[in-house]
Amino acid sequence: MFTQDEKLMPLTGELSSLEQAMPPFSIFEEPVLRFLNALSIRLRQNPEAHSFPDLSAFAFWCRSNHLRRLAKDWDTESLRFGRGLAFHVCPGNVPLNFAYSLAAGLLAGCACAVRLSSRDFPQARLLCREMDALLHSEFRELLPYITCFQCEHDHPVLARLSERCGVRVLWGGDEAIRQIRRLPLSPRAVELSFASRYSVCVIDAGAFLSAPDPEQLSERFYADAYFAGQWACTSPRALLWLGEYARVEAAQRLLWQEVERLCQSRADFLPVHAVKKRERFCLMAAQNPQIRLCAQSNHAVRVLTPHLTPELLELWTGDGLFLETHAQTLDALLPILGERCQTLCYYGIQTAELREFLRRARPAGIDRVVPLGGSTQFSLVWDGIDLIRAMSRAIHFS
């Protein structure tokens, strides 16, 4: 029996639903589309939700028009159904990661059991409350399909869900994923794991300086880099400037001056973060005496380096710490495009040039290439995995 105790707390739905084996939906099933759109409407009409930009972004993503556009990509598919129960284990560094994982599972036709981090995020509580209200009113038919809960990392419910699920979806740090993988999994179940990654940004200095509104570009960089305190996988840790040095210097001054201004009212890093960042710089300098520290405050601590290396990235500590360099070509990125590299944000470079660079380089990493300001936007293809295809099964006619 799945029953509430002091270490297992339901947030959305009912724990008794976890005992049921619900029939799968087709992908992009109509009741799921209507539920997510109703959730979007409730969130957009709730004044409390407006305080959280990430919650507003999720509400916008769940709009009916957007989801139906996504569904059109699958109009030519044969019969495709969810793989049964999708068991999601979500991280503690991004408050609403669980919401997108849940939405993807529902759109793929699965019933979803979602374990949230034990960290208390007010926007997550609000979202769970709004979902629960819908499930106990006009969407009672979906009540057995959606259960969100919190529990200790060693609670037996995790092992039971792992044994029962058809899909196990793991988000988090490498060690957290290793721990969950020790739990038994059904032989026919599939597993999707989204482990620790990092992202990079490349900006053409000339294009940045000639932009009609470089301050707005700086705000887009800030939105990418400082999301979740720079701890999200999508947040750039390294910045490559392309162009002549004089232009790069001018662009750097403009960008970081604006970032400092934005941080004054939005970022809140503690003194301990300042100590940690400077400690990491000392470790970096021991490896590479050519690097320099550049920091006007605790908000943006920049490590200026002649070359980007994996060793420097391993010493990154978040909370506004950036590796920064300049070069004439994209080849300067090659040393850090290993399998842990997730997203490449860019401005001022033609997509054809980026495609040719990646085609030639064939890097082990980079699963997403997005314009500056777009790194946090969720897609149903994530880390190179088509979530709908991976969480569903096709019935093939021959």
TrEMBL record:
Keyword flag NADP: yes
SUPFAM superfamilies: ALDH-like (SSF53720)
Record GO biological process: bioluminescence
Keywords, sorted A to Z: NADP
Keyword rRNA-binding: no
GO molecular function (one): acyl-CoA dehydrogenase activity
Protein name: Long-chain-fatty-acyl-CoA reductase
The organism of origin for this protein: Faecalispora sporosphaeroides
